[in-house]
Fold this sequence. Notes:
Oligomer: single chain
Number of domains: 2
Strand content: under 5%
Amino acid sequence: MLKSLVLASYTFFDGTAIGNMFVQWEQAGFFTYLLPFLLIFALVFGILTQIKLFKDSKSINGIIALVVGLLALQFPMVPQFFSEIFPRLGIGLSIILVIMILLGLFLNSEKDNDPMKWVLLVVAGIILVVVLVKTAGALGWSSGWWWQDNWPMVVGVAFILGIIGIIVAGSNPKPSGKYTPFFMKD
């Protein structure tokens, strides 16, 4: 009686129904094999369909996507990579969402050349680099250690290149809007 009352209230004693379901799915390989397979299959199928390599033959695209999806899961590298990168990606996207909400409170979204949009793009790029570097480090790839040792130098070089880019972009004259072919110029 007490146990059913505790389970009905979804406390931490025996877990929740949803938590138990996720544990069962994990034990069945849902997150390790099925979801990565579906993601790889969908991406390969979508790319092959979009580029029309085999004209409109969706059966060939499906067979190739199936083979690539199954071969990608032959070794544990793909599931490990997905289990490392997607939680970090979720956190990174959450940070970007919070920044967008806060900027949306103070910015005029009707301006096309709003500099804060560029700031948001730079922040998103930094988050992308951090997610990739942390994932590489967690998987034991050597680039993770290289980034950990040399990130101040990379940030400094990127900062200097950004300043140079801003100066060069600001010094170029604006185009007149009229296009004159090179053979008609005086």
